[in-house]
Structures are given as C-alpha cells and as structure tokens.
Amino acid sequence: MNALQKTPIAVLLALVCCALWGSAFPCVKIGYELFSIENTSPASQILFAGLRFTIAGIMVIIAGSMINKKFLYPKPKQVPKVMLLSLFQTILQYIFFYIGLSNMSGVRSSVIEGMNVFICLIISALIFRIEKMTVAKALGCVIGMAGIIVINLDSSLLAEVTFTGDGFLIISIIAYSLSTVVMKVFSKDNDPVMMSGWQFLFGGVVMTIGGFIFGGRITADIGVSAVLMLLYLAFVSACAYSIWGLLLKYNPVSKIAVFGFMNPVCGVVLSAILLGESDKALRPEFIIALILIAIGIYIVNRKPEEKSEV
Question: Which of 106, 184, 232, 306 could potentially form a cystine with 25 if both were Cys, beta carbons 3.0 to 4.6 Å apart?
Fold first, then answer.
C-alpha cells in the first residue's frame, strides 16, 4: 500500500490542501485591492489570474524536477492530456471563478463552492463510472452540505442571485469537478506533479495573453505586499493541486473529494478574519457545522462501505 493510501496521511494532506484553498477566497479579494483591480474589469482579473498560474506552474515544475532529480516535461503524447486538463482545471475554472468571486461576498461564494463535492461524485460515479454511487456516499455528502449551510445562515445567502456572480461560480465548480475526474483518470499512467505543473503553465500563459488582448492591465504601483500576495496565491495553487493530484492517484475520488466540504469552512473563517465580512468563527453555528462536516467525511470514508447503490 502506498503511504498516500493510508487514511491518517490522506486526511492530513487533504486538510492542508483545504486550508490553502480556503485562504484563496479572501486573498484573491485582497489581491484585487493591492493591484487596484476593479470589479468592472474582468479582463484585468483574468490577467491577474494568468500571472498567478503561470508562476504556479513554474513553481511546480522546478520543485518537481528537483525532487525527481530530472527535468519534468510532457512527452508528445501527453501534451493533449495536459491541455485538456488545463482547459478545465485552470482556464475555465478560474476565468469564471475570478469574475464570479468579484461579484459576491467571500462568505456566499464559500457556500456555493461546497457544491463541488456533489458534482465531483456525480460525474465520477454516473458519467465516468470510475466508482459506485452508494448510500453512504450520498448520505455523507448531504450531511456535509448541511454543515456548510449551517455555518452560512445569514442575510448574505438571501441576496439576489446574479449570473455573473452565482452563475459564473457554478460554471467554475463544474469545470473544477471535471478536472478532478480527468486528473484521476490521467494520473494512472502519468505523473500528477508533471501534469499539474505544465497545465498551470499552459493555462496561465493563455489567461495572461487573453486578459491582455481584451484590455486587461495592471497599472497600480506594485509594492512588496502586492508581490508577496501574488506569490502566495501562486504557492497555494502549486502546493495544493500537486498534493491533491497525488491523493487522487492513489485513492477513490469520493474519499478525497469529500474533504472539499472543508474548503468553505476555511474560506468562511479566513474571510471573517481577513475581510471582516462576519464574525462567524465565534458563532455556535461554526461548531455545529464542523461536527456535521466531520460526520459526512467519516460516513464517506468508513469501512466497510455500504454496498447498496442509488
């Protein structure tokens, strides 16, 4: 058994990924402020995202090459796979994520992002059929989603739904869910770290060029804080996706994807701390939500698993 298949190690690494991704919610918004990027300038938002992922790709390629003591690069037959993965995991996901996030609160976006666990499970079980949809998995997802709703019970959830906010974020989630399953399929015969690094680099360059062509510009006087924030966001993607890809390689999609329920928890807490959107971390609902999410994760990962299908 590979070490990454051991539940304690998988849980720890998955939670590290969730903490990193959760920090992206408020940090992207802070990044917009530091780079003076307005909500009304989607091209500049895409340019900003492109720079982030280009740097992330370089980070992964360099780190992976150093660890493997050889330069990681895709062979000709792997290039189409890298491009397909990049289309879903970086280009489509983050074009819609960045624009959608700019049009809604960090808290509200965290709730909607929780849908990715359901969509990942549906795509892997009912479309790609790489694992079974069981009662345990369905129940665990429902309980986990209940936790996300509980932690976000406030007026922001009742705000008017907008296509460029809620709609774009949902499109982003679908793209992410597809990328998760695609990574699972491709990682069987390909190095997930190599795949992550080059898909980030390809997607980042495409988004940078696209954002610039459509009028995106970063005209602010960039200070040290802005540069450090950009580097941190790049590190979030480089580190979290590389680890996540390795976990998907050695574990069922449902076992890892269910930890995605922790992303909104981290996002809510960090949005509350860094953006001052609410005082959720100190509310009783937070404890209830954590308990529900923990139960949901346990049900999906417990052994033996339910044999009945839905």
Answer: 106
